[in-house]
Amino acid sequence: MRERVLLFGDVAARPEGLLRALARAGFALADGEVSDPASPPDLALVAVRDGGSDLEGALARFSGEAWAGVPVIVLLATAAGDGVARALALGADDALAQPVNLSELGARLEARLRNRDAARRAAGSGALQSGLFLAIEEIASAPGPDEMLEILVRRVGEALGAAHCACLIPSPDRRHARFIAVHGSPSLRGVAVDLFRYPEAVEAAVSRRTVHAGEVLRHSLFLSHLAHWPDSPEVHEIESAAAVPLITHRAVRAVIVLRTRRGETPLTPAHVTLVEQLANATAALLAREETLTGATRLQPPAATDQLTGCAGLEAFGTRLRDELERARRYDSTMALAILQVEGLDQLTAGLGIGVSDGVLAELGVILRAEVRSPDFVARYAKERFALLLPSTGMGGAERVLERVVRRAASRAFKNIPPEEQPRLAAGLVAFPRPGVKRPEDLLAIAEAAVRGIAAVVAA
Question: Any alpha helices (H) in 239-393, and if so which ranges?
Fold first, then answer.
């Protein structure tokens, strides 16, 4: 079954064989006199005996807002008089008088639906194009490359309403990538991800061309992915996908990835073309920025953060994946903590960036001294650190955090008044945990717990 058709009016006035012909054509039929729709149908068929008062009464019910945009077709049981002209004058979209050729009626309904869908697509494309190209001005005014891509992802995500819209930078070997921006999930910025989850991004990075899978289960790229990973959610949970490379100075600097879930409106070629146009404009702005600064700023981060001496984001992402896989494989435990330096922005505003950088550098020393040899500490964001604790459950992880927070609280940072001394807040998650399958799941839970667990840890 396809489009939904509701039948109204006089049952006796319907052409003989009408229901059978419409059902054979694939329409889903229901009697509008018995059950008015909770949501409007695709079409309404109204059968009346003639163009008299019954016609006017039958069409009056379709004047409300709920019926706006629903084509109403009148079927007259007699050809006498001016019934067809009167039906059209009263607001019907089409009208036919007996004898009704059922094949012609089916063709008229199909044409009516095609025209409606084409009009909707045209209107949607116009609005989308207007919104996307208005974003170029905002992107051009961004202070740096990362901010440009954040704006790009946000504007595309808002315009398309895709379940997943992200910008990632693939590693040279195309095995891993780092998120620059994820629409609706800013906490994932900087997080490393295994590219086997994004076959479309790998293909776009290698081929330097846009990849569009309107139906992932019919696209060769995803079918090949499914053959290697039969239980892969990347295939079973998404309806459509696209990956658009951003190319500057003949190199792929980043890839925009878009996905829709099952049951959602799939990405159309028109959507992808418009995203390509905006991505190309952004790439031109990035190339200009790189030329002016004399350096390519969209590069994967170093293995070690120079300021704190802790591991960098790429090393952290790799280690997190490895520890999670090891815990899963050997039925072991692990814990992840996110440590946030509270008050850092106020210190920067009041005492300067040199003071706040000094705090981060000292905290890096403290963390590297306090963790055990199997543990792993990384600079996770501007004011955050990440702590990986292999073979550690929730109880053991809480004790480690208590020691770290207590040690940081006892440190008197230079040139900072006692009432402005920074404090550490922490969010903690342990594995195994229901619902946790991927590194991103652990990070999301730890991020959400930063505020809630801080008081417990500080105690």
Answer: 269-293, 313-329, 344-351, 353-370
Instruction: Report d(CA 384, CA 188) in Å as an integer.
Output: 13
| CB environment 290-329: b (16+ within 10 A), e (fewer) | beeeeebebebbeeebeebebbbbbbbbbbbbebbeebee
Whether residue 219 is predicted with pLDDT greater than 70 in this model: the reply is yes
Given a cut of 60, whether residue 101 has pLDDT beyond it is yes
**314 three-class SS:** helix
Question: Backbone phi, then psi, for 46, in 5-degree steps?
Answer: -120, 120
Cα dihedral 5/6/10/13 (nearest 10): 0
Segment 230-245 mean pLDDT:
79
Predicted model pTM? 0.43
Helix ranges (DSSP H) in 294-420: 313-329, 344-351, 353-370, 394-409
Q: What is the three-class DSSP state of 335?
A: strand
Determine if residue 161 is left, alpha or beta; phi over 0 gives left, psi from -120 to 50 gives alpha, anything else beta: left
User: Which pLDDT band, with edges at 50, 70 and 90, does 244 fall under?
Assistant: very high
